[in-house]
Every structure is written in structure tokens, then in C-alpha cells.
């Protein structure tokens, strides 16, 4: 994090020589180079980044386990971790958490946003208590609850484009448009039964995993983003959504 051994030693309250020795001992123990030692800064190798990520996951699991045992008398405390994709259904989740928090103010909510792969990975590794997903799930592996919230698919487009004059975009029209797709849809991780078009018939010019950065491509006229409604605040921007 510090990228400097002197600053890192100060943060850890150890001497620079002690920290350097610990770093070398760790590399010797694992048989891998973990650090790239430059003249002015230290960076991580691929193996170093892998170890850091695993260490972070271990710390999160420890924190979650500790919070599960923290109680003061009859006061309920703890943490709820939700991994979720981008969906307006989060309005339902957050409203229910608001009600919960009124009764149990010592319970904290932690939200990790990502695509479906990220959500499933956090569930599999025990880093999330709840996963919010769109579409089907592996029912044999998880307990699940259908929250009966509906999302609307459509196209995000420049507000001043000709297509914005339409109220609804026919699916067949997608064949003639440059499209910006979610990686999950593009790679087949989400089954969109209603789509009814072979992916090879489409002109997919870009993909995204979270919609926000893709909105700039839309504004620049690169393509039309297939996404869910209510995810992008179009106020003050040259953007509009059509189902």
C-alpha cells in the first residue's frame, strides 16, 4: 500500500531492516518473488498481488467471524455483507435494511457491487452472507428467495440521437445498431430468453461489467448500451433510456 519500505516500516512501527528481513523470509518461505524493488518504490509481482488478495479475504473472514460473537448483554450486533449486481432491486434491499437498522442500530451493512461472477465468487468463498442476482441460480447449491422485483431491459442512448424519438425499441432493430453489452450477456453468463437473436448477428463494439463507465461511450456516440432501467442518472447528461 505504501510502495515505500521506509513509510511501510513507520506504519507498522518496526525498523526498516526488520521489515526488509521479514519480506525476504516470506519470499524464501513461499519460494516466489513477491516484490519488485525499485530505486524509489516497491511494487508487487503477480504472485505478490495474489497473496495480498488472499490475505485480504482471510482478514475479512476473521472480521466476519469475530462480529458474529460480539454481543453486549441482549444487544444484537454484527455485520451483514451483501454482494450484488447492478439492479434497481437494491431499493427493496436497502428499504428493508433501513427498517432492520431502526430496531438493531448496531448491525452494520456492507455492500460489494460487481457482476454475477464476482457475486458468486464471494458467496462461494464465504465473503458474503447474501448475493443479489438477476435470473436463475444454482438452486441445489444455495438457499434462495425470489424477491419478486422486475427489471426492465432496454437501450441507453444519446438524448439527441434519432432513435431517441422512439418510445420502444423493437428487438429486431438491435441487429442494425452498434451495441455495448454487459460482459455477462456477451459471454453467455446470463440467459436472456426473450432476446431471440443469435449473438453473431449483432454488432457488439464494446463490453462492460458495470454500466457507469460505459455511459461515456454512449455519450460519445460509440454505441447503444444494453442495460437495465433506473441504473443511470441521466439528468444533466446527453443520455436517455428506451425499453
UniProtKB/TrEMBL annotation:
Chain ranges of the HTH lysR-type domain: 1-45
PROSITE patterns to which the protein is assigned, alphabetical: HTH_LYSR (PS50931)
Keywords: DNA-binding, Transcription, Transcription regulation
GO MF, one example: DNA-binding transcription factor activity
Any one GO CC term of the record: cytosol
Transmembrane keyword on record: no
Family: Belongs to the LysR transcriptional regulatory family.
Protein name: Transcriptional regulator, LysR family
Amino acid at each position: 500500500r505504501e510502495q515505500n519500505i521506509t513509510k511501510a516500516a513507520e506504519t507498522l512501527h518496526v525498523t526498516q531492516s526488520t521489515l526488509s528481513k521479514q519480506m525476504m523470509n516470506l519470499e524464501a518461505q513461499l519460494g516466489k518473488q513477491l516484490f519488485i524493488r525499485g530505486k524509489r518504490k516497491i511494487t508487487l509481482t503477480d504472485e505478490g498481488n495474489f497473496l495480498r488478495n488472499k490475505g485480504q479475504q482471510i482478514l475479512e473472514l476473521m472480521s466476519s467471524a469475530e462480529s458474529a460473537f460480539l454481543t453486549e448483554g441482549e444487544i444484537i450486533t454484527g455485520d451483514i455483507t451483501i454482494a450484488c449486481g447492478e439492479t434497481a432491486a437494491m431499493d427493496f434491499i436497502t428499504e428493508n435494511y433501513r427498517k432492520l437498522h431502526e430496531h438493531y442500530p448496531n448491525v452494520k451493512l456492507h455492500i460489494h457491487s460487481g457482476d454475477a461472477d464476482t457475486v458468486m465468487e464471494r458467496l462461494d468463498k464465504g465473503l458474503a452472507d447474501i448475493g443479489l442476482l438477476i435470473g436463475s441460480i444454482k438452486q441445489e447449491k444455495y438457499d434462495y428467495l425470489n424477491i419478486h422485483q422486475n427489471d426492465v431491459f432496454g437501450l441507453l442512448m444519446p438524448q439527441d440521437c434519432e432513435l431517441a424519438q422512439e418510445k420502444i425499441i423493437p428487438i429486431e432493430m438491435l441487429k442494425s445498431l452498434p451495441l455495448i453489452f454487459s460482459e455477462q450477456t456477451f459471454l453467455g453468463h446470463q440467459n436472456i430468453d426473450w432476446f431471440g437473436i443469435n449473438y453473431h448477428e449483432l454488432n457488439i463494439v464494446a463490453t462492460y461489467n458495470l454500466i457507469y463507465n460505459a455511459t461515456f461511450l454512449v455519450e460519445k456516440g460509440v454505441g447503444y448500451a444494453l442495460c437495465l432501467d433506473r441504473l443511470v442518472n441521466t439528468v444533466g447528461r446527453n443520455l436517455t433510456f428506451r425499453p
